[in-house]
Amino acid sequence: MLDLFFGLAQAALTPLPVVVAQSSLESGAEASYDSAAEAYNAGLSFHQNEALFEAMAAYQQAIALDPSFVDPYINLSLIYIGFDQLTEAATLLETVLTLSDHPEDPASIHALAHYNLGIVYSRQGDLAKAQTQVNQALAIAPDFLPAQTLAQQLQRAP
């Protein structure tokens, strides 16, 4: 479910995977979508093909069509992280934390949001905030290996 997860972005300290929420893909994207799921799936397809501006537009439309659909927020935030637009990424991830959580693999959406916020804050140089976010991710998903790795790296950081 999270095939895009690995290799999309790097943490500030060392390369770490940034979590992407993913569902089934549909081929053939259009400029206008009938549902949030359709826009989201088109965004995933664009994202996997590294057509990031098209992915951004599709994710934004998914959010506009259904503001409670959390997955496009996660994926759009990853594109912002990749473009070093960390404030925008943090805003999206904080929005995710106000919405309903749901299971994902390898961690719930809220655990993914906390983990990705940890990456944002570490890139911004705020290691204390980063550690807090990673700890919150691990409180939700104790076996979430990328969060465990980031927590260890943050603890070793100067």
Mean pLDDT across all amino acids: 84
Rg on CA atoms, Å: 15 Å
Beta percentage is under 5%
Number of helices: 7
The SS-based structural class is mainly alpha
How would you describe this structure to a colleague?
By secondary structure, the protein is mainly alpha-helical. It has helices spanning 36-48, 52-65, 71-82, 86-96, 109-123, 127-140, 145-156. The protein is globular. It starts with 35 loop residues before the first helix and ends with a helix.
How do the helices and strands line up, and which of them pair or pack?
Elements (H helix, E strand, L loop, with lengths): L35 H13 L3 H14 L5 H12 L3 H11 L12 H15 L3 H14 L4 H12 L2
What is this entry, summarized?
Helix content is 58%, strand content 0%. The protein has 158 residues and is mostly helical.
Give a quick set of tags describing it.
mainly alpha, 7 helices, 158 residues
